[in-house]
Amino acid sequence: MHTLETSLKTSLKTSLKGRSLLTWLDYSESEIRFLLDLAVQVKTEKRRGERHSRFAGKTLALLFEKRSTRTRCAFETAFGEEGGHPVFLSTDDIQLGAKESIEDTARVLGRMFDAIQFRGFKQSTVETLAAYSGVPVYNGLTDSFHPTQALADIQTLEENFGPAKGKKLCFIGDGRNNVARSLMVISAKVGVRFTIITPKQLYPKADLVKTCRDLAVTSGGEIQITENTEAVAEADAIYTDVWTSMGEESQKEERTRLLSPYQVNQSLMEKSNRKDTIFLHCLPAIKGEEVSSDVIDGPQSRAWDEAENRKHTIKAILLASLSAG
Ligand code: CP
Ligand code: NVA
Predict the structure, then answer these.
(1) What are the boundaries of each domain within the chain?
(2) Whether residue 119 lies in the annotated active site
(3) 242: helix, coil or strand?
(4) What is the whole-number distance in angstroms between the Cα of residue 141 and the centre of ligand 1?
(5) Whose CA is nearest to atom 3 of ligand 1?
(6) What is the rounded distance in angstroms from the CA atom of residue 278 to the CA atom of residue 269?
(7) pLDDT tens digit string along 274-319?
(8) Which ligand is the nearest neighbour of the Cα of 182?
(9) CB 192 within 8 A of CB 262
(10) Cα atoms found within 13 Å of the Cα of residue 48, Cβ hemisphere only
């Protein structure tokens, strides 16, 4: 039997089958480990040119309130190339909380689709879709979390340094944004030593930091929040994201003022005191703002591998929750 099919038949499959992914807070370390290992198998299959039809006859609704390149393309191609039928629905096309409640939209989509992906503003919307649709719902980014991104980030870290446990990952930029928050949660779950470097005004909320610190006690991870860029010392990976996230455009000027001293450039990379430190970015990047061109386009950057890994990790999430196996 094929190894990937064997993986899907393991006992963990039971706990992941039919599951939504709203935030990693709901997942155990071993469930996340299972998905990471599955993503490696998916990537290997792809490299070998193997073709399968594990989603044949299945449908996936892709709901977008905000723009997307990677997330949309990853879901659409991962599902479609295995024989599934993804349907892209932007809020210009469908009723979603405008003329029809989110609850009713969820009920209707759940009657027609096997699963739903949502990208948009409120975390409560993706939670309502999951509560009322009766099918697995995947969070493709909200103002609060970006969980599918964080799984690809850990896969990329592991491709360079082996198992994530004990590795040092530093996020520098807007410490309260969706990407920073999801990285903090997944790091706490899998035992990464995670640091957010950000000005005091952009520290993440204390309740989530406390939750993550408590989780890190069990996993062997560590959560540090600081204003000091010297904290990148000995980092395995230095990560940044745009200073102004989608939906926050009115705060661009203030963000630029606060975060300019936190640009990831060559001199910041050198503060790690390691030549093998890698650079990560969820993308899209604004070169010359949060990162200099020489870093993101340079030899330490793994941003393009990371973008590709979005597809492999998303396929792993879909396989675990939707395969018949
Ligand atoms: N990283 C990411 O989510 O990219 P998109 O906004 O293009 O989907
Ligand atoms: N923090 C960014 C991530 C984009 C993938 C945003 O929300 O715009």
Answers:
(1) 2-145+310-322, 149-307
(2) yes
(3) coil
(4) 8
(5) 71
(6) 9
(7) 999 999 999 999 999 999 999 999 999 999 999 999 999 999 999 9
(8) 2
(9) no
(10) 9
**Tokens standing for residue 250:** 């009115």
Q: 149-307 adopts what CATH topology?
A: Rossmann fold (3.40.50)
Of all protein residues, the one whose alpha carbon is nearest to atom 6 of ligand 1 is 68
C-alpha separations of 40 from 3, 36, 139, 289 in Å: 11, 7, 21, 33
pTM of the model: 0.97
Q: What is the pLDDT of residue 10?
A: 76
The reply to whether ligand 2 has any atom less than 6 angstroms from the CB of 285 is no
- Measured from the alpha carbon of residue 314, the closest ligand is 1
149 lines ligand 1 (CB under 6 A): yes
The domain made up of 2-145+310-322 has a fold known as Rossmann fold (3.40.50)
**Assign residue 166 a region: left if phi > 0, alpha if psi is -120 to 50, beta otherwise?**
left
Q: Identify whether 176 is a catalytic site residue.
A: no
Q: Could you say which DSSP state residue 264 is in?
A: B
